[in-house]
């Protein structure tokens, strides 16, 4: 008999809303400055920069809302952060119209990957211990940064930390809400933010006719595709899996690829499943009932759309927030996920060393050949798994688990 999910109630919206707000705040306040840096390097006009912000935010919002509603899972989409970091140097040598063409080619690559189903088959070969070690390694730097800000503003960071641990003792479900409220009030009361020049003006998309060339294909499209795949899609899907969600990667790749293709002529370089900000909305802090965490995905997407409508003017509001607030909020919000990931990584004694290698290699955050630490951590973990567990590596995880069950039944008395 099929079990029916509990009906949606008004109080089901509170914690998903907070998780979504924290996720959006961390995304814009933490990494979006790189977009403005890349726009400055490319000598883009204010109108083209606003169009870039508009197309990214609206595209991310629509795809996130649709995927979360369709699959009833918190599928958080975001811009490619490693992709825009790469563009901050690549746009120096690439005409903007050719960069637009390269964005479109990269998006087509993701559509093909999603339709073919190859990426989903690849994910099946990654053992749970490696997935958990990879996630813990990615998030570790954010946990450390939560306390690193004490060098800059010790009183503020200590206040947020004290608020967190007191609420964890008294009202654990409200710990993240508490540091968000206390931190925001403190910023306003002690004049730590300057709202001068912050206004609300509607953004307008500006169409740029794409141009195509071999140099932009090899110099922009291909690196952007590889960097986004390894730096966003792989960790993003593993984060979704680690919290027990089963949506195939195929529709996510296809939908975000189509969205990126449509928005590319307006400046959007690439959007994809989120990694870091996704972990805030997929865990129990978003909702104790896993089946209702998709609400966080819908609210998150809606907030992105609102930001996109106002473009640069509303993004500026996020950028004026002190880095210590963003870092401490992100780190404390991710503590639960970091802890559970480490526990999952170390759970199986047989795979503990491989998981530890993955964790440490990922946490080292080494960038080689323009590809970030998450990919090389995965490579190190899979290489260790290949050498140490050669026989089981040849079959996907689903087969390994089935074989293990059969062997246990065979030896049972």
Quick structural overview:
InterPro entries: Benzoate_Transporter. It holds the Pfam family BenE. The chain is mostly helical.
Give the mean pLDDT.
84
Q: Give the overall silhouette.
A: globular
Number of strands: 2
Cα end-to-end separation: 32 Å
Helix and strand element order: HHHEHHHHHHHHEHHHHHHHHH
- Widest beta sheet: strand line-up: 1-2
Tally of structural domains = 1
The tally of helices reads: 20
Strand content: under 5%
Write down the Rg: 21 Å
Largest sheet: 2 strands, antiparallel
Helix amount: over 70%
- What class, by secondary structure content? mainly alpha
Please mark out the parts with pLDDT under 50 across 5 or more consecutive residues, or reply none.
398-413
Describe it for me?
The chain has 413 residues and is mostly helical. It has one domain (12-138, 201-322, 337-388). It contains 20 helices and 2 strands. Helix 5 crosses helix 10 (214-242). The protein is globular. It starts with 13 loop residues before the first helix and ends with a helix.
Features of this protein?
disordered C terminus, Benzoate transporter, 2 strands, membrane, 20 helices, globular, mainly alpha, two-stranded antiparallel sheet
Write the layout of secondary structure elements.
Layout: H1 14-31, H2 33-41, H3 46-71, E1 77-79, H4 81-90, H5 96-116, H6 118-123, H7 128-148, H8 154-170, H9 175-189, H10 214-242, H11 249-263, E2 271-273, H12 276-282, H13 294-310, H14 312-319, H15 323-333, H16 335-347, H17 352-363, H18 373-388, H19 390-393, H20 397-411
Antiparallel strand pairs: 1-2
Helix pairs in contact: 1-12, 1-13, 1-15, 2-4, 3-11, 3-13, 4-10, 5-10, 5-11, 7-10, 7-15, 7-16, 7-17, 7-18, 8-9, 8-15, 9-15, 16-17, 17-18
InterPro entries: Benzoate_Transporter
Protein name: Benzoate transporter
Transmembrane segments: 13-36, 48-69, 75-93, 100-119, 174-193, 213-240, 252-274, 294-318, 325-343, 355-388
């Amino acid at each position: 008999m099929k079990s029916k999910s509990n009906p949606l109630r008004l109080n089901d919206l509170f914690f998903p809303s907070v998780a979504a707000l924290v996720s959006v705040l961390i995304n814009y306040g933490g990494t979006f400055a790189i977009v403005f840096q890349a726009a400055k390097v490319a000598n883009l006009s204010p109108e083209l920069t606003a169009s870039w912000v508009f197309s990214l935010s609206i595209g991310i919002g629509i795809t996130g809302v649709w995927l979360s509603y369709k699959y009833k899972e918190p599928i958080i989409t975001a811009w490619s952060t490693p992709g825009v970091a790469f563009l901050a140097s690549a746009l120096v040598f690439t005409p903007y119209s050719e960069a637009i063409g390269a964005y479109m080619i990269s998006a087509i690559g993701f559509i093909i990957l999603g339709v073919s189903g190859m990426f989903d088959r690849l994910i099946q070969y990654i053992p749970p211990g490696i997935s958990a070690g990879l996630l813990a390694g990615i998030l570790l730097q954010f946990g450390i940064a939560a306390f690193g800000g004490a060098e800059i503003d010790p009183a503020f960071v200590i206040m947020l930390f004290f608020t967190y641990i007191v609420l964890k003792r008294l009202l654990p479900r409200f710990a993240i809400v508490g540091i968000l409220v206390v931190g925001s009030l403190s910023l306003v009361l002690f004049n730590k933010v300057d709202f001068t020049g912050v206004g609300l003006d509607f953004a307008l998309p500006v169409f740029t006719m794409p141009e195509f060339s071999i140099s932009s294909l090899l110099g922009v499209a291909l690196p952007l595709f590889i960097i986004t795949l390894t730096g966003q899609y792989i960790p993003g899907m593993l984060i979704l899996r680690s919290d027990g969600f089963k949506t195939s990667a195929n529709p996510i790749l296809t939908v975000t690829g189509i969205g990126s293709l449509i928005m590319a002529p307006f400046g959007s370089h690439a959007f994809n499943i989120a990694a870091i900000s996704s972990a805030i909305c997929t865990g129990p802090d978003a909702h104790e009932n896993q089946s209702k965490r998709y609400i966080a995905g819908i609210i998150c997407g809606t907030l992105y759309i609102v930001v996109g409508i106002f473009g640069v003017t509303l993004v500026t509001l996020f950028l004026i927030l002190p880095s210590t607030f963003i870092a401490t909020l992100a780190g404390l919000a991710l503590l639960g996920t970091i802890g559970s990931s480490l526990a999952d990584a170390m759970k199986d004694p047989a795979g503990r060393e491989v998981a530890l290698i993955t964790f440490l290699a990922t946490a080292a955050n080494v960038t080689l050949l323009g590809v970030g630490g998450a990919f090389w951590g995965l490579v190190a973990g899979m290489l260790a798994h290949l050498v140490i567990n050669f026989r089981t590596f040849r079959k996907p995880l689903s087969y390994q688990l089935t074989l293990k069950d059969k062997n246990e039944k065979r030896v049972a008395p």
